[in-house]
């Protein structure tokens, strides 16, 4: 009887592990989709979408070391003197830890600010958290890699 109980516990453990792995893949795919949605909303100055993606206590550190809260970032994103033509993500890696996801990757932005062209090639780290069943970004860090 103990052998059958032990085998049953092993099967339960295997099934639970498979379920968690499937859930992690699903959440990782959802986070990648949300990252793209965020970049598109930023490029299009879509404040409504940005408002839903960013947690109320969101904070971002940009390339020059400046910090923005959710309100500050949304104000910055709505600036009509900036025309973002390209906002591309690449090399995204999602690491899940329960209801928290850490994303690292590369970001390329190109556009015009006050009539002058600009272009960034950044590395990013974003932290997402599942809040009330919905993924929202709580912190973000963008930096410009040193040229070698």
Beta content comes to over 45%
What is the average per-residue confidence, as pLDDT, rounded to a whole number?
88
The total strand number stands at: 6
**What does the overall shape look like?**
globular
The H/E string reads: HHEEHEEEE
Rg result: 20 Å
The CATH topology label is Nuclear Transport Factor 2, Chain: A
Number of helices, counting only DSSP H or I runs of 4 residues or more: 3
- Measure the end-to-end span: 66 Å
| CATH first level | Alpha Beta
| Uncertain stretches | none
Helical content stands at 25-40%
Number of domains: 1
Structural class of the helix and strand makeup?
A: alpha+beta
User: What is the second-level CATH architecture?
Assistant: Roll
Characterization of the model:
With 148 residues, the protein is of the alpha+beta class. It is 39% helix and 45% strand. It is built from three helices and six strands, in the order ααββαββββ. It has a six-stranded mixed β-sheet with strand order 2-1-6-5-4-3. Helix 1 packs antiparallel against helix 2. The mean pLDDT is 88.
List the keywords.
alpha+beta; Nuclear Transport Factor 2, Chain: A
Strand-helix topology:
Blueprint lengths: L1 H42 L3 H7 E8 L5 E3 H8 L4 E16 L2 E14 L2 E16 L2 E10 L5
Parallel strand pairs: 1-6
Antiparallel strand pairs: 1-2, 3-4, 4-5, 5-6
Helix pairs in contact: 1-2
Brief synopsis:
With 148 residues, the chain is of the alpha+beta class. Helix content is 39%, strand content 45%.
């Amino acid at each position: 009887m103990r052998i059958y109980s032990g085998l049953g516990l092993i099967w339960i453990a295997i099934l639970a592990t498979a379920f968690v792995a499937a859930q992690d893949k699903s959440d990782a795919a959802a986070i990648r989709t949300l990252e793209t949605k965020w970049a598109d909303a930023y490029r299009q100055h879509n404040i409504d979408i940005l408002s839903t993606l960013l947690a109320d206590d969101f904070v971002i550190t940009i390339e020059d070391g400046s910090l923005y809260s959710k309100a500050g970032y949304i104000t910055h994103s709505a600036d009509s003197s900036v025309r973002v033509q390209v906002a591309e993500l690449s090399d995204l890696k999602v690491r899940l830890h329960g209801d928290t996801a850490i994303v690292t990757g590369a970001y390329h932005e190109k556009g015009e600010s006050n009539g002058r062209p600009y272009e960034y090639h950044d590395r990013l780290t974003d932290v997402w958290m599942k809040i009330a069943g919905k993924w929202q970004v709580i912190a973000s860090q963008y930096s410009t890699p040193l040229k070698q």
